[in-house]
Design a protein that fits this description.
Layout lengths: L24 E2 L2 E2 H6 L3 E3 L13 H4 L5 E3 L10 H22 L15 H14 L16 H10 L14 E5 L5 E5 L24 H14 L2 H4 L1
Helix pairs in contact: 3-4, 4-5
Length: 228
């Protein structure tokens, strides 16, 4: 449906950026839709989360999945796939913080930050590390609506239109004339077998192995000149 805009002159937008949610889209394309077009495999083992680097603490509370790779050569290891997913989640985290006007280099350990920073971190990780789908093998499970709402509350997001809706369906025409159907988050509260998200906040401490892995990812994420 067409977006409607408020006529309230006192509305003041806050943290209403594009995209409004962390890891929602990249270069104008829906990340959630792209993930749904991939096949995912569950990662077994109680300690598998330790290889998730930047996202290790977030995914330690549920069984997650990683995307299958097309057969274009040697099949990458699960650890390599997890590393790549963690790298993508970190890029989304950095991009969103930048859009919010925050200095990423002041927030390199999101697990130690305020509720807003942690909500950005969790949404990015839930997007790239979906819950293992026990009901429909291989299919992607979007982040839960409750996770989205927790982010809106934690970051006090205010948009002077309908841009801050967690559950939505938009039809968007691309430059080449194609029409892309963009959908929002799963209309469920976590934890749920129908979406990705947990009902409790991760603990404050992060295992040293996870910190080390995240530090290495940070070192390779941005050019050295940007860190000066």
């Amino acid at each position: 449906r067409a977006a409607s805009y408020t006529r309230d002159a006192v509305c003041v937008a806050k943290n209403c950026i594009n995209p409004v949610f962390p890891a929602l889209s990249q270069f104008g394309h829906s990340i959630l839709s792209a993930n749904e077009n991939r096949t995912w495999r569950c990662v077994p083992g109680y300690t598998a989360w330790r290889s998730a680097g930047f996202c290790s603490q977030v995914v330690s509370h549920y069984e997650f999945a990683v995307p299958e790779q097309e057969a274009t050569g040697a099949r990458p290891t699960v650890e390599r796939l997890m590393w790549e997913q963690s790298r993508q989640a970190m890029r989304a985290y950095v991009a969103h913080l930048t859009g919010m006007g925050r200095d990423f280099w002041a927030h390199t350990e999101p697990w130690k930050e305020d509720d807003c920073i942690q909500a950005v971190w969790r949404m990015a990780c839930y997007t790239y590390f979906p819950r293992c789908n026990k009901l429909s093998s291989g299919r992607y499970l979007r982040p839960c609506e409750s996770t989205c709402r927790n982010y809106l509350k934690a970051c006090q997001v205010t948009c002077c239109d309908e841009g801050a809706q967690c559950v939505f369906t938009h039809r968007r025409e691309l430059r080449n004339g194609d029409v892309e159907l963009e959908e929002g988050y799963a209309p469920h509260s976590g934890p749920s077998p129908f979406c990705t998200g947990v009902g409790r906040r991760p603990a404050a401490a992060v295992p040293s192995l996870a910190v080390a892995a995240a530090a290495v990812l940070l070192a390779h994420l941005l050019p050295r000149a940007e860190r000066a």
